Amino acid sequence: MKKINIFFLVLCCLSFFGCEEDDKVTMLDFSNIVAPELEKVLPENFVITETTNLNDEVGYVLWEKGEYGYAASVTYTVQADIHGGTFEEPVELVSSTTDRAVITAKMLNNTAMAYTIESKPLTLDLRLKAVVSSTGGDGTAVPVVYSKVKTFTFTPYIAEVPVKDALYIVGGALYGWGNDKANVGKDLQPMFAADSKPGEKIYTYTGFFKSGSDGFKIITQAGNWDTCYAYKGAGLMGANNDGGDFPAPAADGYYTLTVNLADLTFTMVPYAEGATAKRYATIGVIGDATPTGWDSDTDMVETLPHIWVIQKINLIAGKTIKFRADNDWADNWGIGTTTNNIPFGVSSNGGDNFPIEKGGEYLLVLNDLTKHYMIIRTEKLP
């Protein structure tokens, strides 16, 4: 009987130590984690158009799951960056806990809008971010791992980005009082702006103003006096023709007129550099978007000193243009510092070519004093 009890005690002890061994924490070797592998992104070269239902499923992303050495609960997120980017601020398209995720046209289009404002082929780099929701056996968080990058090209549909409207100066202090559309670029002198954002309500014009009793007004729509901005007193203006003519300066010369439509204020200050500024014999536009391509310039007309205009020119979509002086590359002007650069902006000497997204008839204006420009389709002129 005693032998049986001793044997039973030994069995219990072995059982106890066996359970204790099973309850020990198992340390995970994070160095052996195998990252997921991005296999396919479909459809390739998909084109989103104006008629595409953005909610439609258009394809999928397929991947090989990562390996953690145990049954980990993993969430996989498809991340995107512009081709060649560093993924410092990636766009996240979709997440899944399986080995695939459905892609909709809306996902693609929304992602594209982080990198382009044009409806043309866009190449992105895609990768998977793998996150384990649980911790390792010792409570340590499992590292986030990423797949290798896979390149994906598609064409988004970007609706036309709203931009600020054109604004004109009219009056004898500049050119004349002709207020019809035929006078855009002549009596109706376009004002300029630093960028095209519609929320920015500041316009400017630097040029030669004549003294005398004949002043000017600010026109919002060709042929319409009722909606113009008028003079209300020193530094103030009224909307809807509430006021009189802006007075001409006391002396002939170059001035910079700046108007703020948000608070209905204006300033007009002398521009001393105008009197000694370089005068060009010709300034033209050149590029594969123009009728003569890169072979020759299409000359602009100097309607007022240093203000160069082409009232109507047909430009080709998907091509580019530049301004240049005297049929030479010594002085040529392209995109400046702003990214929202059409129809308004300030050009820089030797800057990149201006992209022409939509083809058609354009009005082109360049102020060679300040390098402000306007590149706008005539159908968009008010």
UniProtKB/TrEMBL annotation:
InterPro entries: SusE. GO terms for molecular function: starch binding. It comes from the Bacteria. One of its GO terms (cellular component) is outer membrane. It holds the Pfam family SusE. Residues 32-129 form the SusE outer membrane protein domain. This is SusE outer membrane protein domain-containing protein. The lineage of its organism: Bacteria, Pseudomonadati, Bacteroidota, Bacteroidia, Bacteroidales.
